[in-house]
Amino acid sequence: MITRNPSLTDQVKAHIKEQIVNDEFEDGRIPPEASLAEDLGVSRTTIRDALGKLEHEGAIYRKQGAGTFVNEAGLQIKSRLEEIWSYEQVLEDHGYKPVVKVLTDEVLPVNEDTAAALHLEDGADVLVIEKLLMENSTPVVLTRNRIPATLLEVTDRKRKNLPIYEYLEEYCGTRLSYYVSEIVPVSFDADLAKKLGVKKGTLGLSFIEVGFDQNNEAVVHATSYFRDDLLRFRLIRRKAGA
Amino acid sequence: MITRNPSLTDQVKAHIKEQIVNDEFEDGRIPPEASLAEDLGVSRTTIRDALGKLEHEGAIYRKQGAGTFVNEAGLQIKSRLEEIWSYEQVLEDHGYKPVVKVLTDEVLPVNEDTAAALHLEDGADVLVIEKLLMENSTPVVLTRNRIPATLLEVTDRKRKNLPIYEYLEEYCGTRLSYYVSEIVPVSFDADLAKKLGVKKGTLGLSFIEVGFDQNNEAVVHATSYFRDDLLRFRLIRRKAGA
DNA sequence: AAGTGGTCTAGACCACTAT
DNA sequence: TAGTGGTCTAGACCACTTC
Q: Which residue intervals of A94-210 are DSSP H helices?
């Protein structure tokens, strides 16, 4: 039943998560780690790793000496900002069925900001992909991704409407590892407002982000704009080092 | 030299972190886990836990089969949103010496939002503390914290200018465990603008947060406003479950 | 092939909570 | 005092990178 890959830990995590969402634990109390280990036939370390991940994502909480419990409040957060991996997924988490429209798809000389973010020379080229994510016909998110042209493979006929992490894996031979994101409040200018289908001057959020691959190289510079009336971001803040 | 409490893991983490910031590793390469374990006289598990925390906070990155390396880019993030524990600390991380001014400090009947956030009855009382955090005489952050009156201890003469997590520990016998925060772009109204020393209509960020204690009870409802020209928030985004 | 990080085990002892 | 989660150890084997 339980085999390798995904790891034992992830299987245990998924198993417990399923029981949590199905409300199978009496009074929201999760069995002791020792029992879980015996029942599932794995070591307590594996159980603890799985519970640690569930705790980190807010699904459970633990009290030393007392036990482990389901976190009802934490379960209700749909998308946690620090664990977002594609805005397409965010829309799905909010119950939308996202439609992707590619507005721009060109290889251009870098501008200053992108050159600095990706450590490129002044005259270098980047592929600029501007996409609009919509729920049915309502625009929700506008994203601009910039990828160094040197990463592009020669074959064209590429599906620019993929989530950017998939595009990078599929056509650039690189795998995103993490983003560093800066959060900026914006008032949409005429161009953005028109694309997002709101009035000029409407308030929204913007993320300015740099994506790094498994070798810790900056591989994508992204700027995204969100309609605050349709999408709110939440996250869990914890004490550093905990 | 190395003893309990703080944990071995945290001591190892601090030790390695210090060597990182002092640039003591050749080519940004951190020694193999086995060497570290032997050198420091601890098990590899302890080393791995410490490295795991450093990786999580962006100080290092690891490549399976290759090694562990210093993450220069990650080291430059001063405050990571998901690990912020007090806005006083954020100002210090940005090189400011924060001055705290308590604007309001009253016990009042709850409003609807706070009652919902803290699961209080309609007529219940809350202590409302409004504070302005300033760099010298320049306002940077305005926070409003609301704490259920039932948590307050009878003694008065309380230092309302403490960071809220310290206030809760000191005077309410409760310890904050985590916050759930919602990020909202705002245009400051006349009142906020005046308090923050900017023009009405200036753009800024607002966080709407609920703090939970070690028993997973909601103990504080906070609303904070930030001057975007003086403070920018960054965070690291990773794939969920990683 | 050698070396590195990733996963997993089995067990010991400690710190804290409940009763 | 019994039971729970928290920390730490020692060691095995696997997956991947590098040469």
A: 112-118, 164-172, 190-196
The residue lying closest to nucleotide C2, measuring its CA against C1', is B65
Residues written for chain B: 242
Question: What is the model's pLDDT at position B79?
Answer: 87
Rounded Cα distance between B144 and A160, Å, is: 45
Domain A87-226 sits in which CATH superfamily?
Chorismate lyase-like (3.40.1410.10)
* Protein residue minimizing CA–C1' distance to C9: A43
Interface with chain B: mutation pick from A82, A166, A224, A231, highest number of B CBs within 10 Å:
A82
CATH topology of domain A8-76: Arc Repressor Mutant, subunit A (1.10.10)
Task: Quick: pLDDT tens for B19-30.
Answer: 999 999 989 999
Tens digit of pLDDT for each residue in A178-205? 999 999 999 999 999 999 999 999 999 9
Q: How far is A208 from chain B (nearest CA, A)?
A: 9
pLDDT at B4: 52
Instruction: Give the C-alpha separation, B133 to B149, whole Å.
Output: 24
B3: pLDDT confidence band, cut at 50, 70 and 90?
A: very low
Q: Which residue of A has its CA nearest to B71?
A: A216
